[in-house]
Amino acid sequence: MQRLIKIFFIILLSLIFLIGIAIAKESEEKEEKAKNDYQIMESLFSFLNKEEKAILMAQRGIKEIYYEKKDMEKAIPILKEALKKNKNQTVRNGLHFTLSEIYKDIGQPEKAIEELKAIISENTKRLEELSENKK
After folding, report:
1. Residues 86 and 128 in one domain
2. Whose CA, among 13, 35, 49, 117, lies 20 to 30 Å from 84?
3. With contact defined as beta carbons under 8 Å apart, do 115 and 97 qualify?
4. Is residue 13 located within the same domain as residue 75?
């Protein structure tokens, strides 16, 4: 009988230990997420005074929101609209790249490649314009 009681207590202590480990791991994950969220917010505030970087951060934020919701396709029209309205090449590069990532992740590699080619094409055109203006 005492042996059964010892076995019972060993099993009970083992379960308590495993539950403790699970709780600790969950707490670590929540703490890590909180740190990441804080770093994102800190970065956003430091970039707000720089329009170009603020736009890039907002565009990345849009992507992340839809990634978390597992509804990436909804980010596409928002990013495409931003492309229509923005002439800044750095911002456009970021938008094309983000669209490329989304297309890749939703299984449309051809469209992902098109977005990457758009980056090359637009930058080549811009480089040619700058070269002509230099002459």
Report:
1. yes
2. 49
3. yes
4. no
